[in-house]
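Researcher: Sequence of PCMD domain-containing protein follows. Predict its structure.
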Amino acid sequence: MKKHINPVIALISCLALALASCGKSDADGSLPTNGQGMLQLSFDIPGYGGQSKAAEYDALAISTLRLYKVEPDGQGGATESLIRKYKPATDVPANLYLAAGKYKVTVEAGDNSEASFTHKSYAGASEFDLAAHETKIVPVVCKITNIVVRAVFDATITQKFDKSRRLYVCASDEFSRTDAENNLVPTLEYTEDTVGYFLLPEGTQNLSWGFFGESSDPEIDKNGTKTGKIQLPQQGMQYTLTLKYSKTPDGYLTVNVKVREYESAHDDSFTFSPQPTLTGDGFPIGNVTGYYLDPVKFKIASINPLSSLKMTAGGQQYDVVAGGAAVDGIAAEGIAFKKIDEYNSSLSLDGTFFAKLTSGVNELSFLMTDTDNSEGKATARVAVAGATGASSTDLWFGTANLNAIVTNPSGTDIKIRYRIAGTDAWTELNASKGADGYTYTAQATDFKAGRTYECQLLENGAENGAVRSVNTEAGIQLPNAGFEEWQKSGKAWYPYASGGTEFWGTGNPGATSLGDKFNLTTGEADPRPGSSGTTCAKLQTQFPNMAGIGKLAAGNIFVGSFGAVSGMGGTVNMGRPFTFNAKPTGLRVWYKCNVGSGDKGRIFVCLIRMTKAGATCHVVNTNDADETAFSPSDEFLYTKKSDASTLEGHILGYGDLMIESSVAQWTEVTIPINYREQYNSEKPNVLMVTASASYRGDYFEGSTDSNLFLDDVEFIY
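Model: Prediction complete. Tokens:
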């Protein structure tokens, strides 16, 4: 825990004051007369209950403060003369008088136990110069002086040494089990993971240790002893002894020693601070504390009387103290300020105040100013009960962690319920407590993109806190899905803007090699009703030829790109890398068409997990369609179907619409996406969407009477 002694030292000196000339009592409260200086020292230890877990021990109660006058010794050095001593340090009077010069203050706290699990010792010092008529504030930080030894018993120790296990750590240069067991040297016996504190006796330079374990297994039992040494340990450092049983050539038992600067759960230091300070009353200011029924209280200390106090919470600033007094009307806000004495005050926040804050961990910022215009700042975090929203959302898997804050220490049945906004039915989930003791989490598994959900905390069957809204992000859509962007390059039309990113492809580059009149797919000024755009895609099956020599080519558009012309056919790169932020349930399209005799139109979608290194698309070679073409319902994709070693990936989900008759008017249809259960734990990395006026176009089959108009392709989530 962090202990503050406030304020530190305010020293007012006068040039002509001799140390021996202090005729007044230090404690009589008189003001300094001409030629005198005054030292003001008051103590406050925010957050320090005065005793350790061992209720009889209070380091500060057995502390000593010494004040020295430092003067030259005439030989280039200095002498220190003790002029004040206070034991405990908190007995220092309000007023002291000093002459100008150089001084040193030291503070020692604790009983200097040489080996203890609870008795820590501290020390700190600071030197300072005082000029005539100067007021000086000197902070003194007292750090822990112990050598800290932490023991960690690996689970293997408990398992293997099932009868008993103990670790002795001694403040001695060499380990002796007899000395340890009979307390002939400062010793601590560890039987579980814990921390101990040591001070080396005079003449001792090392810590030594010995482990002794008993096992019901004779083979293990004979290797149950190990001793060692921590050489030249340093004060203020932590040495962690980790004991683990493993088969090693030197006897199965291993001990690892790690060293770092000591840090406990709280900062174990006394701080002498000149600025006004605010600390938690009954809780460390650096930790989250929860509001539940009883007010949350703070202590305020300052070296000079407090002039003003401002607090900011929930985006609102509150003027609590002005001119040294509580602001009128502040109590109605649920804020109570009480002046204890000239240098100490208390602040209390009750339910009226916290009712204005949102559920969650709220940050409270404080700005304090004293009559000497010294400013102090502090921040507290207070948990307010209720649902707080969602985190770790993965809309592909439909999962979302619903979070809530619970501050009721007797709460046992904690649930979080949720629903889609505007609906009546709630889903209730059991919630689990987090490591901070306030946060509870429950995982929903049916969240979808583009929704507004509502969630609420249920505590012991009752609602607690307001209903909280959670908005999920919209599902990702395809670029140029309304087919508004087109450009002509050479003879061929392309479905993307000039200088834009290619996403959709067509067979136009191949067909127009025989003339630009054979563009199979073009933009058409015939958008679907209600469209915000002006253009759709027209897919027209044709017979590109030269002097009557050619092959039928289907009007088509697909996610991917045209590959290359090869003889009377060519290659098509179907699919592109695509990252979904949610799992679509269908593909919605607007279409109309004419289906020629013996032909069919087709629109399909495939969500693919490519597993072959570097594979980002599937190549269809129309000159070898039997080996490279595929059906959306196929589970696997191969570079060459007859060769299993050419596996490229697998289709996680697909949707397929076969259009068997003409549709004269624009029609909206949603193509369901069917997912394979065996791939429920996977996400796709490649997307295919394909539309064709002639469904067997890759086999050069179809009708030149067939066409397909397509507009506003959209994933449904």
